[in-house]
Every structure is written in structure tokens, then in C-alpha cells.
Amino acid sequence: MLMSATMPKFLRDHFLNLLESKSLVIAGELMERASNEWAYLDTDLDGIREKVLEEISAGKKVALIVNDVETAKKEYKYYSKKEFEVLCLHSEFTMADRQEKESRLTSKEGNPYELVISTQVIEVSLDVSFDVMFSECAPIDSLVQRAGRCNRHGLISFGRFYVFNPSDTAVKYVYRKQKDILDRTVEVLKNNYGRLTEKQIMTMVEEAYEGFNLYNEDYKLGTEIIRDIEQRYNFFDVNIFQEDENLATRKFDVVKVPVIPADEYMETVEELFENKNYKMISLYEIPVSISKFKKYIRRLEISNKYNLPIFKIRYNSEYGIDYEEDDSNTHYSF
Fold it and tell me: N or C: the chain end with fewer CB closer than 10 Å?
């Protein structure tokens, strides 16, 4: 069984054909529900800061969702200087730190933070609810997933879901292959606002993806990469120092390399290894993109007798890795 709140017709048809099924169930009783008020703000991150602060001052639980890790770090550093509780959440934390953050965020006592700054990682799995959400523009299906964390539990009459302009980084690197969908999303959002029902939102998804060809060159490339990996590699054991350069280039935006900060965790992971507690070592690994690994981290390897991926990197549990320099070409991790 496949379930989704954001499945346009081309995907429904694809899976029905793939599964040789004719059974499609739509939760019609929920389609007239309207949980949030949607609005498009024709401004950038700097332009929404005053409005974010106003909502926090009014006692609202606020989320700010951006499209890349480095922007999330930058916004955390800005808002963490204010006098309220802020959480930064993205993919570049150790599993131990991320689990702790998510545990606090979803505790039975409720979300303890006035502001949560996150990347796309908040779109799935987390059972958390905000009164107000500010989201950098992304393809419409991603926005719907994000909006699912706004007034998620229906405890207020309606939440507010604001979308603002995508950054140059998002357009050039994060969604460069989906620029047409991104442009259509902006157009659709500008024409649809207010308290939108689930039915209206689904119509917006269909409009943004009208005429989209699923079986394009990216689809073909993806299936080729999968076959290549299945035939030649154990996907999770690809050696970043030795792997085939052609395959590495094709997986450049997808595969993450695990790294362990030496200063914080070298003694811990070596002790775990000595005690043969290998599974726990992954709690102290940080997944980084191949591009960041090659540019900033690879040369900082710390040799160790266990051949663990330990590197002399600066790591902060509040916002993640501090890189040596700021280069927008590397800002497409989530």
C-alpha cells in the first residue's frame, strides 16, 4: 500500500501501472478540511525577519524552513542572539544530536521552542505542530508536506503558512533541475491564497505538474545508476577515496559521506570499536555531501588504527559543522 498527501496524477498512474493495480482510494471525507491560511510573500529571508519576530512576540510557535544547510546555520546564528528558545535542525548533525533534538521537539510536554529553523528534513516523519510557518519556496509537493506540520493537530482554528521567494542558491543548486516546477509553484501560489481546503491544495499540485514527463532523462539516468550500483557495489560501502569517478559524479548530489569530528568523538568511537560495539559508532557520524567532503574535509583526515572516518573538523551541536570558507556552490545539502 502506498499513501501520500501529494501524489499528482502522473505519479498515481505510474504506481497503478507498476503495481498492476486498479485500486485507488481517496479520503474524500477530508478533502473539504482547511487547516491553514496560505499566503505568498514576495520577499526574501531578510524581508520576513520582522514578521517572524512579530509572530514570536505574539506567543506563536513558529517554524522557518529553508532549502539548504548553510542558510539554516546562518539564520540560526541570527535568531539565537534574540531572547527566545531556538532550535536548528538539518541533515548535518550526528545521529545522536539529531535524535536528541527531535526528541525534545516531539516530547509529550510539547514543543519547547519559540522558533525552529529547519531544512527539508522537517517534511517527513516528525509529528510536530506549529502555529505559524514561514517556508522558502520549493516545488509545490514539498510545500504541502511542510504545511502538514502547521496546525497539524488542529488545536487552533487555523494556522498561517507563509511562502517567500526562493534564494539564488535554491534556484541554482537545490532545485536547478526543477526550475520549471518551481516557477509554476510561485505562479500557482500567487493565484491561490487564504484558507485553502485539501481539495484546493491538490488542485494546485496538479496545476504545477501539468504536462510533467516522469520518464525524462533524469528518470532514465536514475534507473541506470541503480543498476550500476547493484551490479558493481554494495551501495553503503562505496569507498569515497577509491570509487569510480564516473559513478561518483553521477551520484554527486545524492550520496552522503559519513565523517566523525575528531575533537568531540574520536576517543568515544575508538572505545566503541575496541568493545566491538560497532553499531553505536554511527551515532557519531555526520553525513555530508560529496562536494563538501572533497572541498573542505577530505584533507583533514586523522589516521587511526581502526580506519574510522575521523576528521579534524569544527563541529557545534547547536548548528553543525563550521567550514573554513563560505562558498555558495556547496550549499545544496538538506
Answer: N
